[in-house]
Amino acid sequence: xxxxxxxxxxxxxxxxxxxxxxxxxxxxxxxxxxxxxxxxxxxxxxxxxxxxxxxxxxxxxxxxxxxxxxxxxxxxxxxxxxxxxxxxxxxxxxxxxxxxxxxxxxxxxxxxxxxxxxxxxxxxxxxxxxxxxxxxxxxxxxxxxxxxxxxxxxxxxxxxxxxxxxxxxxxxxxxxxxxxxxxxxxxxxxxxxxxxxxxxxxxxxxxxxxxxxxxxxxxxxxxxxxxxxxxxxxxxxxxxxxxxxxxxxxxxxxxxxxxxxxxxxxxxxxxxxxxxxxxxxxxxxxxxxxxxxxxxxxxxx
Length: 301
Fold this sequence. Notes:
By secondary structure, this protein is α/β, with parallel strands linked by helices. The chain has one domain (33-281): Alpha/Beta hydrolase fold, catalytic domain (Rossmann fold, 3-Layer(aba) Sandwich). It is built from twelve helices and 13 strands. The chain has helices spanning 13-21, 23-32, 96-102, 125-138, 150-161, 183-190, 193-202, 209-215, 223-230, 238-249, 256-268, 271-274, and strands spanning 52-56, 60-64, 74-77, 89-91, 94-95, 108-113, 143-148, 166-172, 206-207, 254-255, 278-279, 282-283, 293-296. β1 and β2 form a beta hairpin. α7 packs antiparallel against α11. The longest helix has 14 residues, at 125-138. The chain is globular and about 50 Å long. The two termini are 19 Å apart.
């Protein structure tokens, strides 16, 4: 039976496979990964708001949407999952960047983790934290963080490791304390680690986003499904639905080492919330975060 949850997250879909298909089917699914295309489908999603690339680092790039010297900049850390970071600036009227600019914030930048290529397959969480350190230093050494979903736990790790660099922090839909009841976490812990390792091997060291999407037979969403996600009527502009279709079908790849670290240290062991996760050589102690913190959560996935 196919899962009814929205398949947008490579931490989620193997767990749903285990839940709905059973352990025996997982091996069939793993073998089928090699038969799916490895390249994204269609053009890379466009960003809605004019901007410039401020930094281009090995694992990520920084898009700058506004700048004013002397003000604490706001750094949005976008999700690094199945789809692209343009989600943070999806379309006019559907853009976090646009909303922040409308509230008069200055120095707005978005961190976009790059789709992994074979030379990036051994990148770890530490690599992303180190590049994030370069970003914060480039922006003056003190920032307001906004972490979206997977970008939230990465932001929180950074804040716990370098609290003096955080002016304030907002986390939206970010998995932090994975001891909370969750079918996704329970499924991850019930699935043999060898399965996740097999997924990485099938992608020659990467988690290939297009194969993950195709594995579930996810088709381009129809206008009714897109309207529900975007919370608009079905008579909305056709351009909005086309943007959503392009964003949905264009996927990113993840470094295998990074992926396996997240599965093991966060989803299985809950090390960040337990105060045991080692970030750049030291334990990331959440109690060291003294900056104002705002958490936005949802009652449903």
